[in-house]
Amino acid sequence: GRFVSLWLSFAKMALASAGIAAGLSIGREGPSVQVAAGVMHHARRWFGPHSGISHHALLVAGGAAGIAAAFNAPLAGVVFAIEELSRKLESRSSGLIIAAIVLAGLMGVSAFGNLSYFGRIQVPHLTWDALLPGLCVTLACGVLGGLFAKLLAASLTRAPERLNQLRARFPIRFAAAVALVVAVIGMVTGGATFGAGSEAVKHMLAGQADVPSFYVTLKFIATWLSAWVGVPGGIFAPSLSIGAGVGHNVAGLMGADIAPALIAMGMAAFLAAVTQAPLTAFIIVMEMVDGHSMVLSLMAAAMLASLVSRMLA
After folding, report:
1. Strands (E), 27-154
2. Which of 11, 29, 163, 185 has the highest count of CB atoms within 10 angstroms of its CB?
3. What are phi and psi of 14, to 5 degrees?
C-alpha cells in the first residue's frame, strides 16, 4: 500500500505529466508500470477469496500491461514480466498476464490506433560491410550504458557525499537548481533534450535529424539529472533516444546508407546496457520500429552491450 495503490496511480499520472510538460528528460513507461500495477492491485478486492490470484501475480500483470500499453508492444510486456518483474512465470498467472496485456493493448489501440511507436523503418539489405559500424555502435552503447547505470545507482543510493547531503537536507532547492541545469541544456540544444526524445528519434530514423553532434552527451546528462531530482518518470524512452543518437553519429561517420539499422541497434544496445534486460530491450525496439527483419541484429546488439555493461559494473 505504501508503494502501489490507486491513489498513487493518479498521483504518478499527474506528476509524470507535469514533469514531461516541464521538459525534464523522462519517459512515460516507468510511471505506466506503477500506474497499471496500482490499478491491478486495487482490483484485488473484486476477486473472491478462493480465486487463487495473489497480490504478486496482479502486480506483475499490471506492470506488464503498463509496458505493453506505453509502447504498443504486447510481446515486450510478456518478456518484461518474466525478465524484470518476476524472473519466472508461473503457469497459474500466465493467463492473467496475457489477459491484462490484451485489455491494455485494446484500450491503447482504440484510443491511438494500431501504429508502431516509431513507425516502420526501411532497412536496406545488410552485408558484412555493416559488421564494423554495428560493432562500434554496440560497444559504444555498452560502455555508455554501463557508465549511466553506475552513475544513476550511485546518485540514488544516498551515499554520504556532499551533493547527496544537500539533496537530503534541501530537497526542493536541490531539485530547483538541477532542473535549471536541465532547462539550460535544453535551450542549448534547441529543445532537443526536452522530454522523452521520441520526436528526435523519429527524425533520425527518417533521415531528417538536425540534432547537434553533442546531443548524446547532453541527453545523457539531462536524463541522469532528471532522475536524480526524484521526479517520477521512466528511463526507457530517454535511453532509446541516447542509443539512437549513438547510432546516428556512427552512421554519419561510417555508413550513412544503413543509418536506420544502426539507429535501431543503438536503441536496443543502450537500453539493454542500462537495464541489464537484453530480451526486453531488443523485443521493445523490434516492435517499436516494426523491425522483424532485424531480429538477429537487434538480439546480438542487445546481448553484447549487456555483457559490456556488466563488465563495467
Report:
1. none
2. 29
3. -70, -45
